[in-house]
Amino acid sequence: MKRLRNPRTGIHQGDVTVFADFENGGAMWTGSGPRERRKKVRFDETFASPPAVQLAISLWDMDTSVSIRAELVAENVTAKGFEIVFRTWADSRIARLRASWTAIGDLPFADDWDVQ
């Protein structure tokens, strides 16, 4: 995790293989209709509150003989991690997908008070 000069802000980045279905005949490659894959990501350090998470496709291997339909979102974002969610539908065939992510948010600080 990067810490900015402001010790309360952190930036954490990663790159994760979400799935690879072409080798084993998985549903993303051989199926049709609505399909979804989820990949949990845990942060190296816990943020003070849920950060903003940005996703990007860093690798996609798709069949171009049919329409390419895809959605990539971050869901269930907490201070400790989130889920990468990839969805496709109809006759789209996706062999594999890798996603890069960036989380930016508040970090715990030594002078924070825990008042209950």
Short description:
This protein is mainly beta and 116 residues long. The protein is built from one helix and seven strands; from the N terminus they run ββαβββββ.
Rg, please?
17 Å
Model regions low in confidence, pLDDT < 50 over at least 5 residues: none
> Going across the major beta sheet, what is the strand order?
1-2-7-4
Separation of termini?
A: 29 Å
Pfam families: H_lectin
Protein name: H-type lectin domain-containing protein
InterPro entries: Galactose-binding_lectin, H-type_lectin_dom_sf, H-type_lectin_domain
Domain H-type lectin: 39-104
What does this structure look like?
It contains 1 helix and 7 strands, in the order ββαβββββ. It is mainly β. A hairpin with a 5-residue loop joins β5 and β6 (81-88). It comes from Parasedimentitalea maritima.
